[in-house]
Amino acid sequence: MNKSRMWSPIQQLFHSFSLKQRIWLTFVVLITLGLMATGSIAYLIASKEIQRNAMQSSQDTVNQSAQIVNERLKNIGIAIRALMFSDAFKQLMKDVQTNDRSSYYKSLTSLQYVFSQVKFNDSMIESILIATPIGDFYPTSSVRNTANSFYKSEMYEHFKQLNRGFWSKGHVDPFFTGQQRVISLVTEGVGEDSFMVYEPTNVYVVVNVKEDDLRDLFMENLTKTNKQYYFIDAKGEDVNYADRTSKDHFIQKPAFFEQLSDQMKGSFFYTNDKKDYLVNYSRLEVKDDWMIVSVQAKDDLLAKLNGIKRATTYVIIGFIILSLFITNNLTYLLLKPLYRLQKLMKRVEENDLSVRFESVYKDEVSQVGFRFNRMLDEIKQLIEDVKNRERDKRKAEIKALSAQMDPHFFYNTLNTIYCKSVLGENDDVNEMILALSQMFQLSLSGGRDLITLGDELEHVRQYLAIQQRSYENLFVCEFEVEPELLTCLVPKIMIQPLVENCILHGFKDMTSGGNIQISACTEGDWLHITVEDNGHGLVPEKLLQGIVHPTTSKHGYALRNIYTRLQLYFGDQQRMEITNNDLGGARIELWIPSYEGEEDFHEHEPTG
């Protein structure tokens, strides 16, 4: 109890000290820490510099090797395309199309010169096989293994699954004798006609590349000093055989491949059995799931720093022992307020404005912390005020734009109802009045700005019912909407102005034959709405100019109104396209986010 009373005045006195006075009291401690930091920083700087240089050097080497292999494989693909443009191959394709087997030996002889040219241009090519329904074609210098048909091979099945050409990893050549290990390029043969219409030809070209030559190619520029290199695919399996020891099996582990990004090249450190390795990789452009990987132990990478590390460690341990008793509690007490304030600032950077600074001290740091609290309170209130004002402003603009839609339709409808009433067409009058009533009800929508797509389309149907009574036999309208989309939310009175534009402008001077198409579908997270007609069409450039740069002209007013409302609702998360369709009529396309509940909309609601 007495001891507590003795320390209480000292604590109060220490709490009353300024930050400057506390820094002065810890001056000697800071000098000691500075000396300790010097050795550590020197080591870290040297270590990082060596790591950076080694990583860059290793990465450059791997990139260069990958580029050489990629270019070589790409050139082989170009050579095969050149083969397909030869006269002999074109004639072969014609024989295949006509199923003419009588010219088999003539075509086989004609292709020998082409095969020789391809193999001469690239010595890595072991053999070439052209599989066709009328027979196989290959260099006569190669001995064909007739027991294995390409059309019954795994390569053929794999091509059918991918429906495109591909490179296979190392395997024993099944089509020619000699048990030669090869890497194969499989592609579909194309002739002049099939190339234009993109029809399958059932002709396939298989190019076998010597696996030994490919390995020598990618190892040619790679140094083996303290490094292991692998030519692997996305599953960690060797593209061609490699010298792999048991300690390197970690390159096939899922944890290893999780660190390989989708970038074409990169480097990272990987830990296996408590040992760190520097890994560099570079993907091939011709087949991006093939990569050349370099693995080097971090201990080997930093071997030159071992002496510096030991000396630095001894010095640091000495200073730690010397300074341990005076740095423990004193440093904690001095820096505790700063650490706390720093953590609070980091949380504020993450948009957490609920944090508050608390401290028993009365020094400069504490005063800053208390002012920091007041600043947060003011910022939070200002942000809330700005959000409320922007939200109210945006809602007011939306309601104003919705109210500005041209009411001439309602006036024309009332005049039409009056005329039909005078003429005694009571059935039409009844239906038009009912449709107009339902349109008013849907337009009001209980004060909501967002309604379901089903309600919006019902609004359009009521509008069409009225217009078809006013313009009899002028047009028909077709709907193509996926049923599950009817619950999606859309701004009200968005589709009806587009339909009205079709009737008033697209079918102007027409008496019959008009057709309006309304469709809605999903594209990922987007709701895609299209309204098009077969009318006179429009001038998209002029309308787009009027939308982007509004004028007082009423031309394109409805489209400009819709575009502005979509911007207010969704910001940049929307798109409108104005074009003419193949029939010459207008096509208006809208893309908006697909929301099924107002909570989804408010979660992504623009604030500006």
From TrEMBL:
Query: Coiled-coil regions in this chain?
Result: 372-399
Q: Which Pfam families match?
A: HAMP, HATPase_c, His_kinase
The protein's matches in SUPFAM superfamilies, at most eight in alphabetical order, are given as: ATPase domain of HSP90 chaperone/DNA topoisomerase II/histidine kinase, HAMP domain-like
Q: Where is the HAMP domain?
A: 332-384
Tell me what topology the record assigns in the membrane: Multi-pass membrane protein
Q: What is the protein name given in its UniProt record?
A: HAMP domain-containing protein
UniProtKB keywords? ATP-binding, Cell membrane, Coiled coil, Kinase, Membrane, Nucleotide-binding, Phosphoprotein, Transferase, Transmembrane, Transmembrane helix, Two-component regulatory system
